[in-house]
Amino acid sequence: MAQATATTADSKLWGGGRSPFNVSYGKMMMWFFLLSDTFTFGAFLISYGTNRFFSAVWPDPNKVFKAFPMMGHMSLPLLFVSIMTFILIMSSVTMVLAVHAGHYGDRKGVIKWLLFTIVGGICFLSCQAWEWTHLHSEGAWWGSFTDFSAPASSIEHFFRAKAISNPAFAAGAGMQATHDFYNFFFTITGFHGAHVASGVVLLIIALVNSVNGTYDRRGHYEMVEKIGLYWHFVDLVWVFVFTCFYLL
Amino acid sequence: MSHTHNDHNTQHFYEGDQSKLYSGVMNPHFGHDITAPDSKKQVGRIWKVFWILLVVTIVEVILGMFFSHHLPEGLVAFFFLTLTLLKAAYIVSVFMHLGDERRNFLITVLIPLVLFIWFIIAFLADGDFWLHMNSTSPTRDVAAIVSIK
Q: Which terminus of chain B is less hemmed in, N or C, by CB atoms within 10 Å?
């Protein structure tokens, strides 16, 4: 008996008192929250895909997202959203640099990179606000495009020639698809935008705490790391939203 | 008392400030010089991933702007999804440091994602089936429904 006990104690089995994953409780819970959020976003995007798969026609992203601020009616497909994507990737880099500075207890570095990240987040949200405003000015919103008796010309500019020539298009599938497309677009980018907005709030809190020296007194910058995980996740979701809505 | 349990008094860790348990993989660097070579190496890795993400995104945009209309749809979707997963892997592994965590934690986080394989196949196949039904069944035909109206 004593022998067995000694063996157990000597082995490298987890004995409590420390994290078995070498990850703190808060960080692990952030990962699990992000995992649950992955399924929320996944469900959104998959329902979008299901809807698209059962529609005979679907709007073409190159026709829907072709406007650029100050460029009037010029057709510049994907350009604006590419800039939004670049801003978010850039803010992800500044975030990971803030986390890195936190690992070394470099307060000034953390403050600098958090500031850049906040600016990036606000730039992204501003871009999204412009894009939503622009689409709204074209008549798109939640619950828009429901009039099946409206002439085809009211929605034709969202589709490729191949879709317009599909007999189902004029029979109602075109209007239905436009309606569905915008409902999904505003819901999913809106849900993502809400994540970015709350991320910016969290970053501002972390910035204030860093300036006040809260994390130095605590002895670690784990809070910056946890908010960083959230921020990268938001970037990660955008990678998928970008593919599903703008590329495919 | 047997020695199977840790004798150290760790109760206060659980009752007080949870953050005292912080022992992240990067914590040993705390207070070290950020201009030291190991730090610079890590920063270099971050920027390398940034350039990879940027180049992949530019490739995606060029593909979307100029080529997606001229190639088979399935091939385009395959390209985009592969590049997207590549970007996701870099973000999770390097930016979120999951690649630096212990392997058992990595597996704990990643295994639930296997559900997505079923999730995607089942729902997209269902959507496809509905389209098939709509375009073959006379009562489900969009044109027929509109003409009845």
A: N
CATH class label, A24-247: mainly alpha
Q: Among residues 9-48 of chain A, which lie with CB inside 8 Å of chain B? A: 9, 15-28, 31, 35, 38-39, 42-43, 46-47
Written as six digits, the tokens of B125 are 């196949």
Whole-number Å distance between alpha carbons of B97 and B106: 10
Domain boundaries, chain A: 24-247
Q: Which residues form the domain of B142?
A: 113-149
ipTM over 0.90: no
**Residues A28-51, buried b or exposed e (16+ Cβ, 10 A)?**
bebbeebeebbeebbebbbebbbb
**Is there a contact between A77 and B41 (Cβ–Cβ < 8 Å)?**
no
Instruction: Print pLDDT tens along chain B (149 aa).
Output: 444 444 455 544 444 344 444 555 556 677 778 888 888 998 999 999 999 999 999 999 998 888 877 888 889 999 999 999 999 999 999 999 998 888 889 999 999 999 999 999 999 999 999 888 877 655 555 555 555 54
Distance CA(A137)–CA(A130), nearest Å, equals 11
B78 touches chain A (CB under 8 A): no
Q: How many CB atoms lie within 10 A of CB B28?
A: 10
What is the domain count for chain B? Answer: 1
